[in-house]
C-alpha cells in the first residue's frame, strides 16, 4: 500500500487503542517474527466484525501476543467469553499482562497447547471462530470447528493470500501448500458461503449456512 494512501486510511479511521499501540510496539521489540501481530487496521476490522455479530462465544486459534484476541473480545455480549489457543507457552505471561491492561482478562481464557488436541475437549458452540494458527493445519482447524459453529455463525481465516503465494499451485512449501489446500477446500464446501477479501495478507470470511 502506498504510504500516502495508508496515512489517509489511518487518518480516517478511529485511532488505535493506547494499550494496543503499546502491545504492537513491545511485540516488535521483544519477539521473533513480530509481523505476525495483526496491527491497527486489521485489529479494528476484527473488532467491528465482532461488534456486528455480538457473539457470546468466540474461539481463536493462534493467540501470538494477544492483539487480535483483545480486538475480538470487544464485541462480546455481556458475559460472553473468548477462548484463545496458543502452542508457544513462552508467550502466555506477556499476553496475559496485556489482556489485563485492556480490561479483557475476565473475558478471555488462554489455553496453551495444540489446537487439534484442545478443540475436541472444549465441546462448545461458537458464534465466531478466528483461524490464524499454523498454515499447514488450516484444513484440520476448519474440520474440527465447523460442526460446532452455530448455523449463521462465522469463521474468519487470516493469511489466505499468503503473500501472493496462494496462487502458486506448484509450490512445495508446506505452509503454502496448507493455504492452497484450505482455499480449495472452502471453495468446494457446500454448507457455507464466503468472501475472500484482499485485505492485508488476505482475509476469508465464512458464514455457515446449515
List keywords for this structure.
alpha/beta
- Secondary-structure element series: HHHEHEHEHEHEHEE
State the shape.
Answer: globular
Roughly what fraction of the amino acids lie in strands?
15-25%
Q: Tally the beta strands.
A: 7
Assembly category = single chain
- Residue-averaged pLDDT: 97
**Helix-strand makeup class:** alpha/beta
State the end-to-end CA separation.
37 Å
Measured as a percent range, the helix fraction is 40-55%
| pLDDT < 50 stretches | none
Strand order of the largest sheet: 3-2-1-4-5-7-6
Q: Could you give a short account of the major beta sheet?
A: 7 strands, mixed
Q: What is the count of DSSP helices, taking H or I runs of 4+ residues? A: 8
Rg calculated over all Cα atoms: 16 Å
SSE layout:
Elements: H1 3-11, H2 18-30, H3 39-53, E1 57-61, H4 67-73, E2 81-86, H5 92-101, E3 108-112, H6 115-122, E4 126-131, H7 138-145, E5 149-158, H8 174-187, E6 192-197, E7 203-208
Parallel strand pairs: 1-2, 1-4, 2-3, 4-5
Antiparallel strand pairs: 5-7, 6-7
Helix pairs in contact: 3-4, 6-7
Amino acid at each position: 500500500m502506498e504510504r500516502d494512501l495508508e496515512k489517509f486510511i489511518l487518518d480516517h479511521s478511529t485511532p488505535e487503542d493506547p494499550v494496543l499501540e503499546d502491545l504492537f510496539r513491545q511485540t516488535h521489540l521483544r519477539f521473533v517474527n513480530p509481523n505476525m501481530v495483526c496491527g491497527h487496521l486489521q485489529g479494528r476490522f476484527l473488532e467491528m466484525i465482532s461488534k456486528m455479530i455480538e457473539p457470546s462465544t468466540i474461539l481463536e486459534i493462534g493467540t501470538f501476543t494477544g492483539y487480535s484476541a483483545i480486538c475480538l473480545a470487544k464485541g462480546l455480549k455481556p458475559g460472553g467469553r473468548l477462548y484463545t489457543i496458543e502452542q508457544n507457552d513462552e508467550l502466555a505471561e506477556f499476553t496475559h499482562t496485556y489482556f489485563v491492561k485492556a480490561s479483557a482478562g475476565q473475558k478471555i481464557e488462554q489455553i496453551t497447547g495444540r489446537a487439534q488436541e484442545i478443540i475436541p475437549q472444549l465441546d462448545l458452540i461458537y458464534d465466531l471462530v478466528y483461524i490464524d494458527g499454523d498454515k499447514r493445519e488450516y484444513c484440520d482447524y476448519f474440520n474440527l470447528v465447523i460442526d460446532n459453529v452455530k448455523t449463521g455463525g462465522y469463521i474468519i481465516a487470516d493469511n489466505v493470500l499468503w503473500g501472493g503465494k496462494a496462487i502458486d499451485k506448484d509450490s512445495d512449501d508446506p505452509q503454502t501448500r496448507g493455504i492452497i489446500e484450505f482455499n480449495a477446500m472452502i471453495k468446494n464446501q457446500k454448507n457455507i458461503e464466503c468472501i475472500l477479501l484482499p485485505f492485508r495478507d488476505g482475509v476469508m470470511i465464512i458464514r455457515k449456512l446449515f
